[in-house]
Amino acid sequence: MPVTDASPSCIPTLREALSRYLLEITPQKKGKLQESRRIHAWQKHPLGDLPLDRIRPIDLVSYRNNRLAAGRSVYTIRLDLAVLSHLFEIARTEWGHETLGNPVKALRLPAFPPGRDRRLEPGELGKILSLSTQVMKDLIRFAIETAMRRSEILSLTWDRIDLEKRVATIAETKSGGKRKVPLSPLALEILQKRLSENQGRPFPLSPDDVSHRFLDACRSAGIRDLRFHDLRHEATSRFFEKGLSVPQVAAITGHKTLQMLHRYTHLRAEDLALKLEECSGPPPKRE
């Protein structure tokens, strides 16, 4: 049974509150496994011994700075602090501790680094494909044609693919809900070939297997600083280069905001210069 004693004199320690949060709140979340790991890490932290009302913003400043100094990514630190912030909000609004402040809200969060702008250079894709197995060749091409995430591609099953309508349905996306992805002629061709070779999933690989195989091919080809997820950036940029509108690209990629879509779009200046040349006509007459 959940703890119901919410009198002001019974403010729990951070460790105790996290245990309750783990039982009542975390199971309702899509990313419950990842959040459980973050909670267990917080419970081992020295701050876990303090009552919630004794945790100050300066304590979290030390936590933030120590994590940055240890080389943890900004994304990781912000996610860790987000768990703590939500815990304080739940304690205040649902557990009866109305006077409890949220020290995370007074904290200056570390700024996100500039988004990656790595795209495939001429010749790189051919080198990677030449050093990849057939299933990886198909997967890489499919990723570039659809802008789907690694997890989304690997979760595809044949019952979620309509070859006649040329649509693949992602049952559960990173941002929640499902998304229907239109299939280009090449993406459709890849799936039709995979269907003739497989009775299970189109791409029967694990996420780690895909990442390791991709990095191995890049190393063998002498290609640096390229990750499998960069193919999603590549695909998104190619959609715009083909002339698709912002709403059309967002519908394919699943980006909820223009800001996030922009982070995944990297149009080359030299390509835009060629586009301007193609679109240019005689200069307008001036009266």
Automatic annotation (TrEMBL):
Keywords: DNA integration, DNA recombination, DNA-binding. Pfam families: Phage_integrase. It comes from the Bacteria. PROSITE patterns: CB (PS51900), TYR_RECOMBINASE (PS51898). Residues 12-92 form the Core-binding (CB) domain. One of its GO terms (biological process) is DNA recombination. Signal peptide: none annotated. InterPro entries: CB, DNA_brk_join_enz, Integrase-like_cat_sf, Integrase_catalytic, Integrase_recombinase_N, Tyrosine_recombinase_XerCD. Residues 115-277 form the Tyr recombinase domain. One of its GO terms (molecular function) is DNA binding. The keyword Protease does not apply. Gene3D superfamilies: 1.10.150.130, Intergrase catalytic core (1.10.443.10). This is Site-specific integrase. It comes from Leptospirillum ferriphilum.
